Amino acid sequence: MSVYENTANAQSAAGGRDEEYLLTETEAQLATVLALMTGFSQGCCAVHRAPMAQRVAEQLARMAEGLDGSDRSGDMRHFLQKLGQRWATVAQVLAQPEPAVEDPASGHGFDDEFSQSQPHWHHSPETLQ
Fold it and tell me: Using an 8 Å Cβ cutoff, are 60 and 87 in contact?
């Protein structure tokens, strides 16, 4: 029996309640961002990747601006802002239509880790609360 099957059996035996949490609004927003990042990294459909990256960028910006009701240090706000900008750049790149023929001189080799889904050892949960 594989590790995945053992994990699935253990979750079934627990009644699936091990993935239910009572979170504050701030914690829920952080959980949302982490779930979106996980979905982005393990996503199979290229059409969903740009909107997911954009949503991550928006959520990080909200957290940086304190719109989630949490008070953060200046360094944390700066970190979240920079991270949000990087995710916005990823979303922008992925939202661009792909050229019919790749021009090597253009320097826009977007055939990188974002263009194809990657197999991972750990899978996302089937449902998110």
Answer: yes
